[in-house]
Structures are given as C-alpha cells and as structure tokens.
Amino acid sequence: MKRLLVTGGAGFIGSNFVRWALRNWADVDVVNLDVLTYAGNLANLSDVEGDGRYTFMHGDITDAALLDRLMGEGIDAVINFAAESHVDRSLMSSEPFVRTNVVGTQQLLDAARRHGVERFLQVSTDEVYGSLGAEGEFTETTPLCPNSPYSASKAAADLLCHAYHHSLGFPAMISRCSNNYGPYQFPEKVIPLFLTNLFEGRKVPLYGDGLNVRDWIYVEDHCAALGAILEKGSLGEVYNVGADCELTNLDLTKRIIAACGRDEDSIEYVKDRPGHDRRYAIDSSKIRGELGWSPAHDFDDALARTVRWYRDHEDWWRGIKSGEYREYYQKQYGGGGGV
Ligand code: NAD
Ligand code: TYD
Fold it and tell me: Is the Cβ atom of 128 under 6 angstroms away from ligand 2?
C-alpha cells in the first residue's frame, strides 16, 4: 500500500482504520480527508498526529476542485468512509444523506478515474439489502432493497461503483459490513448511547418490542477485513463482512446493563423507529474463503473492552453529550448537529 486517501477518517470506523493502517502497513502514507461534521472529531486521531506518514486535510468529498487537486498530487488507492451514517437522522432529513453519500461518492469516483487511482474501496453496509425474516442471511447476490433514506443513499452509491466498474472499467470494490461497535463510536448509535446513559444514571430507550436483530462485529475486525480487501480483493467484487453474532436488541441491552452493573429497570420501552428493519444477518463466507479473513474478537470480551474504553474516556463522550463539542465545531468549522 502506498499513498492512500481515507475519506471520513475522523469518524468512528475511519479513525479506527487510519490507526489500523499505520500499525499494519509500514510503507503507507495516509491522507485523511474529512469535512468534520458533528460526527467527525480530530480527537479520535490525536495519538497519530505526530506520525510522519499521516496527513489531515479538512474538506468535503462533494468538492470536485479540491478532489482534483488532491488526487493530482498522486493517490494510489481510495477508501471511502465519508458518509452521513445514522438511520434516525435520515428519517428527519434525507438531504445531507443524498448530498454526501450519493453525490460525494460520484465526485470521488470521477476524480479517482481522472487521476488513474488503482484501487477504490467503497465502505458500504448490510442495510442496503433491507430486512430479513426469521430465517436466512444476506449474501453478496441478495437483491438490494433499502428501507431507510440512509440505506437508500448507500445503495445508490454502491450502484454507481458497480456501474463505473462494469461500463468504464473503473477499479472499484464494495464491502458490506454488519453493525460495528468499539472505541470512538459517536453516542447516537445504540451501544455507546446506552453505555453512556447508564454511566450517567439514566435509562436506555429501547425501540418497539426490542426484538429486532442486529449482527455485531468489533470495529477492529471490520478494519482488518477492509485491509484485506484493499490489498487482495478482486476489482469489481462485493464482499460481505460479519462476525456471526446475531442478538436481539433486548438481549444486547441486557448484556450492556450487566456489564455496567445496573439492573433491568433501566430499560425504557419507547415508540418504535418508523420502518424499523427487523433482522440483519450476514453470510461472510466469500471474504473468509477468498481472502483468508476471519474475525479475531469474541463478542463478550470485545464488549467488555468497549465498556472499559468508554469508562476511561469520559471526557471524550461527556464533551459530545454536553454540547461543548458541538459549539466548538460550530465555531471552528461551521458544522451542525449533535446527539
Ligand atoms: P461516522 O458518522 O462516525 O463518520 C463519518 C465521517 O465522515 C465523519 O468523520 C464525518 O465528518 C465525515 N463526513 C461526513 N460527510 C462528509 C463529507 N461530505 N466530506 C468529507 N467527510 C465527511 O460513520 P461510521 O460509523 O464511522 O461509518 C463509516 C462508514 O462505514 C459509512 O460509510 C457507513 O455507511 C459505513 N458503515 C458503518 C457501519 C456502522 O456500524 N457504523 C456498518 C457498516 C458500514
Ligand atoms: P443503530 O445503532 O442506530 O444502528 P442501525 O440502525 O444502523 O442498525 O441501532 C441499532 C439497533 O438498536 C436498531 O435496531 C435500533 C435500535 N435502537 C434502539 O432500540 N434505541 C436507540 O436509542 C437506538 C439509537 C437504536
């Protein structure tokens, strides 16, 4: 791996991936392009700021002129994490989702194509497949049937990547991963939201009957899978990524509560999310068989590690939850949003 452009590297998975790449690839140069929305936080990468192989660039993936300049300086590979990523927000306003997830991906594809980028990995999600019933798993050939504006915008970006490869010979690959958890996840997503609520002595809002199923993977395992795809994946292919860890939200919540030493009175059943996908489950046999990747973390150990991380990094999440962080970024970069 030579000069790698990571977009959205100041977010949850992107920042974990930047750290993973610098640790695993001695000869890599990482350029992190991030516009720092409410979900982007440079504190996520303060430990690598001094690494001579790492550069941060503040900017937007929809900015064609900036992408032209950046890729003109020589980029060998692109991995696109930059996105609006929260389903509940997409139900309130889909405009930023279409702008970043669809138009941003198109601008990246065009710039990468103009400048002869050799490999382009689109970081997508299992949510593009829609919802499963009680049986079965998503494979790479499951038809796309996205149900939220978030997953619809991700599916649109996947289709652009497919079309650029099919018709233009562009070197795109797509990964579709299940729900991630681990350090630096923004506390609007269920695991860090519930953990931090419990640390604050508050209740946790469980949607509907709590029986929706998600398939969980530790973020480091996802990063290793992305590394394997970037290095060894075949151009034009889709790779599902998952760790065979299906849990109902209720079961997940009970484990989180137990890990925090609280009792189940902390659960507050609240109104369901509109259009709430019932079940996700990933068949990841293709990446395991073809690229030799498999997850290295057990759910209970990695959840315990995640709980410890949030306990030890109270300043990180308290700042975000209190709104100080929002004010800081508003002033600094004009970004909006919050928890
Ligand atoms: P996140 O919301 O934590 O981070 C997104 C990052 O993108 C932020 O740093 C943000 O500032 C940046 N960004 C947003 N708009 C931008 C723009 N226009 N230009 C440049 N940067 C921009 O998201 P995440 O959870 O880390 O997810 C990263 C990617 O992985 C997303 O594409 C998401 O769809 C995908 N994914 C996430 C999960 C999950 O469980 N979180 C699972 C599978 C796939
Ligand atoms: P989330 O972390 O938003 O991820 P996604 O919607 O992309 O799967 O939600 C994970 C599951 O947890 C999902 O079924 C919705 C549920 N959930 C709650 O029950 N309460 C909450 O406050 C949140 C944020 C999510």
Answer: no
Q: Which ligand is nearest to the CA of 240?
A: 1
Closest CA to 128 of 108, 104, 101, 109: 101
Q: How far is 288 from 224, CA to CA, in rounded Å?
A: 12
Supply φ then ψ for residue 58, to 5 degrees: -85, 115
- Which tens digits make up the pLDDT trace of 177-231? 999 999 999 999 999 999 999 999 999 999 999 999 999 999 999 999 999 999 9
d(CA 287, CA 294): 8
Cβ atoms of residues 66 and 40 within 8 Å: no
Q: How far is CA 16 from CA 171, 182, 191, 236, in A?
A: 24, 9, 17, 25
Query: Of 34, 126, 215, 246, which residue is the catalytic one?
Result: 126
All residues at 6 or more sequence positions from 131 whose CB lies less than 8 Å from its CB, including other chains: 145, 147, 277, 278, 279, 280
Based on the residue annotation, tell me whether 150 is a catalytic residue of this protein. Answer: yes
- What predicted TM-score, i.e. pTM, was given to this entire model? 0.96
Neighbours of 73 (CB within 10 A): 10
**CATH architecture assigned to 3-182+219-244+281-296+323-333:** 3-Layer(aba) Sandwich (3.40)
290 is catalytic: no
- What pLDDT, in 10s, does the model give residues 8-36? 999 999 999 999 999 999 999 999 999 99
- Ligand 2 centroid–CA 181 distance in Å is 12
Domain ranges of the chain: 3-182+219-244+281-296+323-333
